[in-house]
């Protein structure tokens, strides 16, 4: 004879099922039935909350400049204009689990060294005299430069110029880390970490054709600085060599020089060029992407809606959205982008398909 389940009610004592009140009664016990039609928690196809969106630099830059006048002191470390997705304005993500925002540094201003669990990529929009330091490597940055800040490494920023703002775009995975309940944030006890450890030069060590003779494998890139002139030169060379995607034009990935993989555990970054008159084929993929217009102007069509963009603008493509690019102008157009692909690859969840119509 099988033992009765603990707390089970004999069948003759159970109340008759009342479908109209079943769900309500069940919810009082913090539970829900999973059967029935697909819903937002168990959709038939990818069903992100994020929607396509575009943020114009010309409209947001004045706010970034104005904020620099009244957000001062230690609060300046968070002097960032956050891009909010219209699909979830209460959730600070530009799209999917990607954060995007504009940070401003005033002349002779520097931020206290800190570190956090989230990984960050910074794309410099404008200004001269800016610098960032990561794990002992102090790098001067200018427009178009990309800086990698891997998880849990000390870093700090500053603007050494006598006049003029430095503005860059923060590209992080804070939403993902917060969703996973895994975020940490720590300020350096001595304000700067540069005097507490050996100085390094990652561009000199890892930025050339020959790399240090090492068997060390780091999933996050040991190279922190990706200067615009070197990256743009590589893009132009790839175009001359016929390296072309029907979906993205000439596109190249910022990579970890030791492994050849993405620059961080969860964030990938790319640079692409659209030739004058080019129109790419439409495709879609799992994983969201944020684009920053580095040069020129063009059009992106997302789920049938055309969005014009120009230099400085930011736009996003949600996961599994059909999209294509076009450059109807007479000059080349260049886009920087960052994405969720590295994490999806690790989880075996990345997939894409072309529009065969």
What does this structure look like?
The radius of gyration is 24 Å and the shape is globular. It has a 6-stranded antiparallel beta sheet. The chain has helices at residues 19-27, 57-70, 174-179, 202-206, 228-240, 341-347, and strands spanning 53-55, 80-82, 99-105, 109-110, 114-116, 120-126, 130-134, 137-141, 146-149, 155-159, 166-172, 185-187, 225-226, 250-253, 268-274, 283-285, 289-295, 297-302, 305-310, 314-317, 323-326, 333-339, 352-354. The mean pLDDT is 90. It is α+β, with helices and mostly antiparallel strands and 357 residues long.
Explain briefly what this protein structure is.
This protein is of the alpha+beta class.
Shape: globular
The main pleated sheet reads as:
6 strands, antiparallel
Total strands: 23
- Briefly note the structural class of the backbone: alpha+beta
**Spatial arrangement of strands, main beta sheet:** 1-20-17-22-15-14
Order of helices and strands: HEHEEEEEEEEEEHEHEHEEEEEEEEEHE
Helix content: 10-25%
Number of helices: 6
Summed over residues and divided by their number, the pLDDT gives a mean of 90
Rg (CA only)? 24 Å
Protein topology:
Layout: H1 19-27, E1 53-55, H2 57-70, E2 80-82, E3 99-105, E4 109-110, E5 114-116, E6 120-126, E7 130-134, E8 137-141, E9 146-149, E10 155-159, E11 166-172, H3 174-179, E12 185-187, H4 202-206, E13 225-226, H5 228-240, E14 250-253, E15 268-274, E16 283-285, E17 289-295, E18 297-302, E19 305-310, E20 314-317, E21 323-326, E22 333-339, H6 341-347, E23 352-354
Antiparallel strand pairs: 1-20, 2-3, 3-11, 4-10, 5-12, 6-9, 6-11, 7-8, 7-10, 9-13, 14-15, 15-22, 16-23, 17-20, 17-22, 18-19, 18-21
């Amino acid at each position: 004879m099988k033992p009765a389940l603990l707390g089970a009610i004999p069948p003759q004592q159970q109340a008759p099922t009342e479908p109209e009140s079943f769900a309500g009664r069940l919810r009082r016990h913090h539970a829900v039935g999973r059967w029935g039609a697909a819903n937002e928690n168990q959709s038939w196809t990818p069903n992100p909350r994020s929607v396509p969106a575009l943020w114009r630099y010309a409209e947001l830059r004045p706010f970034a400049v104005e904020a620099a006048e009244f957000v001062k002191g230690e609060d300046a470390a968070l002097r960032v204009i956050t891009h909010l997705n219209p699909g979830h304005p209460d959730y600070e993500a530009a799209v999917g689990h990607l954060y995007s925002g504009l940070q401003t540094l005033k002349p002779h201003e520097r931020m206290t060294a800190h570190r956090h669990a989230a990984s960050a990529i910074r794309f410099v929009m404008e200004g001269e005299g800016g610098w960032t330091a990561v794990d002992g490597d102090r790098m001067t940055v200018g427009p178009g430069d990309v800086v990698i800040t891997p998880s849990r490494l000390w870093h700090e920023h500053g603007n050494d110029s006598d006049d003029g703002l430095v503005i860059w775009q923060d590209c992080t995975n804070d939403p993902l880390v917060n969703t996973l309940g895994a975020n940490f944030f720590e300020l350096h006890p001595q304000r700067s970490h540069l005097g507490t450890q050996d100085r390094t030069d990652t561009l000199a060590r890892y930025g050339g054709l020959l790399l240090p003779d090492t068997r060390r494998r780091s999933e996050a890139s040991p190279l922190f600085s990706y200067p615009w002139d070197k990256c743009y030169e590589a893009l132009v060379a790839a175009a001359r060599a016929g390296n072309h995607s029907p979906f993205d034009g000439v596109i190249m990935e910022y990579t970890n020089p030791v492994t050849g993989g993405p620059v961080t555990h969860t964030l990938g970054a790319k640079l692409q060029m659209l030739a004058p008159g080019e129109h790419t084929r439409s495709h879609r993929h799992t994983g969201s992407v944020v684009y920053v217009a580095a040069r020129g102007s063009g059009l992106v069509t997302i789920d049938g809606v055309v969005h014009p963009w120009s230099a400085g603008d930011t736009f996003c493509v949600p996961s599994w959205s059909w999209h294509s690019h076009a450059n109807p102008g007479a000059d080349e157009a260049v886009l920087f982008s960052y994405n969720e692909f590295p994490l999806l690859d690790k989880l075996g969840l990345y997939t894409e398909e072309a529009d065969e119509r």
